[in-house]
Amino acid sequence: MGMLEFFPEWLQYHGAALAVVLPLLMGAICAILPSERLAWITTLIVVSICTVTAFGLLLVTFGGESVIYKMGGWDPPKGISYVIDGLNTPVIFLISAMALLTTLYGLPSVVAEVEPKKRAPFYGAFLIGVAGLLGMVVTGDAFNVFVFLEVSSISTYVLVAMGASRDRRALAAAYRYLILGSIGATFFVIGLGFLYMETGTLNMADIGRKLQELEGGSRVAMVAFGFITVGLGLKLAMFPLHMWLPGAYAHAPSFVTVFLASTATKAALYLMLRFSFTVFDVSFDYVLTVVTYLFTGLGCAAMVLGSLQAIFQTDARRTLAYSSVAQVGYMLLGVGMATSLGLTAGYVHLLNHAVIKGALFFALGAFWYRYGITRTEDFAGLGKMMPWTMGAFTLGGLSLIGVPLTAGFISKLQLAEAALQRGWGWAVFVIMATSILAIIYIGRLILTAYFQAPPEIDGEVVKRNEAPLMMLIPMWILVALSITIGVNSDFVVQAGQMAAEVLGGIS
Amino acid sequence: MTPHVILRVVSKLLIPLIAMFAFYVQFHGDYGPGGGFQAGVILAAAVILYALIFGLDEAKKAIPPSWVRIGMTLGVLLYGGTGVVTWLLGSEFLSYGVLTPDHPSHGQHYGILAVELGVLLAVASVMLAIFYAFGSRQPELSDEDW
Amino acid sequence: MVPTILLDVGLMAMLVVVAFAIVRLKSLFAIVMLQGVYSLVSAAWFVSLDAVDVAFTEAAVGAGVSTVLMLAAMLLADRESRPVPISRQIGPLIIVMVAGFAMFAAIGDMPAFGDPHSPANQYVGMNYIDQTAEEIHIPNVVTAVLASYRGYDTFGEAVVIFAAGLGVLLLLGLNGNAGKWRAQPNGIRISSASAPAARKRPMPEDAPKPPSKPKSTPKRKSSPKTTRKSTGGKS
User: Fold this and answer.
1) Closest chain C residue by Cα to residue B47
2) Residues of C with CB below 8 A from A218's CB?
3) Nearest by CB to B41, which of C65, C139, C140?
4) Which parts of chain A sit beneath pLDDT 70?
5) Whose CA, among A144, A363, A384, C108, lies 20 to 30 Å from C214?
6) Is the Cβ pair A28, B80 closer than 8 Å?
């Protein structure tokens, strides 16, 4: 990896902390900046630095190394440490790169959807949310996870509620998210309390070691695992705990929906992996039971019921939101196999889905931006009215279905392979069945857009009005990425294998 | 709100004492229970008491909302800035020891003072901000309202 | 030893009673006050558990400021809570019961109360107590852990509080003048049913200009709005 030479030595070690602290501090500054333009530029610079840093860290771990950063100079069990390894760098890069793309997209989008004098604090809240997600993923300390979970959650509630200037229902959706998110965080922290009672330490690697010594620990550790699973399950919208998600995605400003849909649940899923496989371990009976039966069962339920619900939505954003619930199911199915292949597949889908859903929500935001459209029946004629945006939506949709030569196909192929290797033929059937459901809910939108005539207003056919370039660029970057992955999936699969190696799993 | 003479007199006596107590809690945090969180809340309580007795507008004259807004940011920046300084001195984020390389424990002491001050500022400002935001939304209450 | 246990049990019993009262009452004013009582009683209990720092925070934040803030919020909303139909209470009840039973199930394996050999009292916690005097030179170990050993967590907490304040500013505005601005698509609105501010579509001002330059967008966008929004200036 010759590219690593471009990254200064300092960044390779301190980069982990920089990627979190910089957006935190600049978020605080953004909140009092007098000009929205200045705030946007600040945000852009900060997330660019984060992306470059994250890329550097990615290269470091691709080189097979891992870094432990000692916050405050204290050695791990005593102080907080940041851990950079093969499991989290792809997610760190995903979050910062998505933040960068959404910021670009935000220039037109935020102007249309957020009150002028609130735009600077809005970007401040966004930066804090980015930092919160990065902090959750990069940390190696269990309690620090909770702190940054709160940082990201609180700013996310606010960002979702900002959709109120578009639709008052955003307030109710944000409130629902707030209540459920707080319950999730409470469950998580209760679990941590039990874990501390059992092991006397908060460092994740240390807890893992202690639990190995105790061979899984007593009932206290089991209860801790239960609480942590439920708490994180709420955050990642695991099937029956997904009630907050459709409302939040449907009513948040487009800018926020894109970022949420492609990162928030992914960061929570990463934590679930981290806790289930490295802090706890599948060699403990109770963990294996939960992973095999609960994750797989709920994952399949989410795939089927989420896709079914997606079909019956009248709001396109809700359709995609329920589809997200279903897609989380695919990831959980992969994780539930607990084999190296299954974990790779789940992880690959985590990355692919972020790319696909990002592109789709980018396109939906552009539809609203030009025509105020979110309902499925209003899609009529969009293929003529916004050809480029609709083209991106179509390619993204095909990828979501899993058509060959797209990222979605790679995910499903990997999943199916892993299922067959595990001897779970039925899982392949479920994957096929839900792909058909995906064809229905995505196909419906695409058909309406291409085969129905544009509406007429005052006797005149609505004219073509393409989305601004600042929206098209990030959208098409993701679409291109999705197709690139479909053609050559090596680097994504390599990232998945790297993660699976850290996770271990059953052999 | 003129009738509450006793409340006004008593609170005039109490408010400076509450503020003083907040600073005692702040700077005594190294030796006994206390620290930035508690002190910030107590300091905010002093202003809130003033607002309850003398009216929100008077309180906003004493501590303008724009100060509160900047105070929130300054608090976070003071905390984070301490970490950035330790970065610039070539050590890890928030490792206060490098502030005084000869006596790391002194540096720890200074660092703790600085970050606790940041917490005080952030907490007090946020509490006031929330109170101002809620308070400004409603008309003055008359006594019968209760 | 025995008298403090009696004290603990007594305070916990009070907590349970207050909690039930909070759940059962309808008057929001009484509920807010009882929440203050709850915090005060738990502060007393923390003192009896020798966690004075926590007790102090609980008393200052829980019983002090948050009661005032809850009252201020209540004044904006309602004075009475509406009863929740029994059918909607069953789900939460089951969740609470399951969570409670799970915790009870673990009791048998928990270390005894105050056990000096429990992991929590042995490992990292002991390190802090041993090394604070030498490494940080301040007598209060809690402050040392809070601000130095785990100072980064405290930084995160400060940001959490900041984010909460920022959220209130974004939603309410410091002077209570937020929330009247309406988002508008930057083109022709086709769908109107889902929009609360449904009115006649505005001028098709910028019709055929496919990739409009983003630079000019903000000005064009915000100008028609300025008339609608309430008094300018910063919040």
Assistant:
1) C65
2) 106, 109
3) C65
4) 1-2, 507
5) A384
6) yes
Residue A63 lies in a domain: no
Cα maximum dimension of chain C: 84
Number of structural domains in chain A: 1
- For residue A319, count CB atoms less than 10 angstroms from its CB and return exposed for 0-12, middle for 13-18, buried for 19 or more: buried
* Tens of pLDDT, residues C149-181: 999 999 999 999 999 999 998 988 766 555 677
Q: For residues C187 and C192, what is the distance between their CA atoms, to the nearest angstrom?
A: 13
A411 part of a folded domain: yes
Nearest to C53 by CA among C136, C158, C146: C146
Averaged pLDDT score across all residues of chain A: 92
Cβ-Cβ contacts under 8 Å, C99 against chain A: 187, 190, 227
Q: How far is C160 from chain B (nearest CA, A)?
A: 10
Say if the Cβ atoms of C207 and A465 lie within 8 Å: yes
Query: How does pLDDT run across A227-267, given as a tens digit for each residue?
Result: 999 999 999 999 889 999 999 999 999 999 999 999 999 99
Window 8-47 of B: residues touching C by CB (8 A cutoff) are: 25, 29-35, 37-38, 41-42, 44-45
Q: Write the DSSP assignment of A426-465 as a string of letters.
A: HHHHHHHHHHHHHHHHHHHHHHHHHHSPPPEETTEEPPP-
Using pLDDT thresholds of 50, 70 and 90, give the confidence band for residue C192: low
Q: Chain B residue closest to C64 (CA)?
A: B45
**Calpha distance A167→A252 (Å, rounded):** 9
Please give the residue of chain B at the shortest CA–CA distance from C135. Answer: B105
What ipTM does the predicted assembly reach?
0.93
- Residue A429's domain comprises 311-507
